[in-house]
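Our preliminary data section would be incomplete without showing what the modeling component actually yields. Below, a chain of 96 amino acids is followed by its predicted structure, encoded as tokens that our downstream tools consume directly.
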Amino acid sequence: MRPRRLTLKITPMKLHIIYTVSGMFLSKKRYDSWHEIQHEYPDYKASLGPWSIEETEEFLKQEYPGIDPLPSEQVGDFIKLTDTVRDISFLQSTSK
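Predicted structure:
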């Protein structure tokens, strides 16, 4: 008898952008609805997603053209981490 082949189904990572009164976050966590996110974040305002890595980067790039570090850096660094949530950084220029 031949051994059975084990097949793994790899699903692409999906991200949420979560807006709260206190900040803006990226999340890898799987949510079935925005109600779950609202329950998890007491100061919840809105959320977007789930989106692919590319869709998330493109949205941040289009909506926040001055974002620094760049969306590709922030999202790229985040997906390498084991953390499920990360704040989105908006460094402000010190020049006037």
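The chain has a mean pLDDT of 91. The beta strands are 15-20, 24-27, 44-51, 85-87. Preliminary results of this kind motivate Aim 1 of the renewal.
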